[in-house]
Amino acid sequence: MEMNHLQELLIEDLKDLYNAEQQLLKAMPKMVKKASHPDLKEAFEMHLKETQGQVKRLEQVFDALGAKAKGKTCHAMKGLIEEATELMGEDAEPDVLDAGLIGAAQKVEHYEIASYGTARTYARLLGNEQAARLLQQTLDEEGNTDKKLTALAESSINIEAADMDDEDVAMQQSPRRSSGGSSRSGSSRSGSRSSSKSRSRR
Ligand code: FE
Ligand code: FE
Ligand code: FE
């Protein structure tokens, strides 16, 4: 195809994004279902609703550029969703799957952040402030989602996933005694316990 003008490149990028968002609309309900932590479920649900608005907003951007809203397969999103689907097919501990889902979702957000940031800059360079403003709105939503996912991962979800090793399962069955007595402090058990803790804080 002929692409001599930045406007044409922008429209190609928008077609890619339009398709990427539509792929996500289809894929996200399964991620909502597979997430265990209520905060993660809620975050996914909220972003699913935002994504519906983002599709509509892209239609406004096409409009602002005098172009027809149309999609073109985003192969990158297809691949990212395939990886997430593969992950969801694993027989994983709920906390570990949550951590994996956050990682998969953040890869998607980063792709979107790069794409919307680029499109916003093109729109601005073309002097189309309306398109630039709309793209910036979605860019902000993607950025906030990414930050929220990082906060969720750091607050509890990844920590729980890291803690769930065999030793901790054994610990749950026979709870650790309080470390009041010094006689046991040199045991190998307490040593490996602390190394498992430090691993989780990596
Ligand atoms: Fe999006
Ligand atoms: Fe793409
Ligand atoms: Fe997103």
Structure keywords:
single chain; 202 residues; mainly alpha; Ferritin; 78% helix; 0% strand
End-to-end span in angstroms? 48 Å
Q: Count of helices?
A: 7
Total of domains: 1
Low-pLDDT segments, ≥5 res: 175-202
Rg estimate, integer Å:
22 Å
What is the highest CATH level, the class?
Answer: Mainly Alpha
Average pLDDT score: 86
Strand content: under 5%
Principal-axes shape call: elongated
Number of strands: 0
Largest sheet: none
How would you characterize the overall build of this protein?
This protein has a single domain, classed as Ferritin, core subunit, four-helix bundle (Ferritin), CATH 1.20.1260. The protein has 202 residues and is mainly alpha-helical. The longest helix is centred in the C-terminal third of the chain and has 35 residues. 78% of the residues lie in helices and 0% in strands. Bound molecules: fe (iii) ion (3 copies). One fe (iii) ion (FE) binds next to helix 4 and helix 5. One fe (iii) ion (FE) binds next to helix 2.
Summarize the structure.
It is built from 7 helices and no strands.
Q: Helices and strands in order, then pairings?
A:
Layout: H1 6-34, H2 38-64, H3 75-88, H4 94-125, H5 129-163, H6 166-173, H7 188-200
The structure holds fe (iii) ion (3 copies).
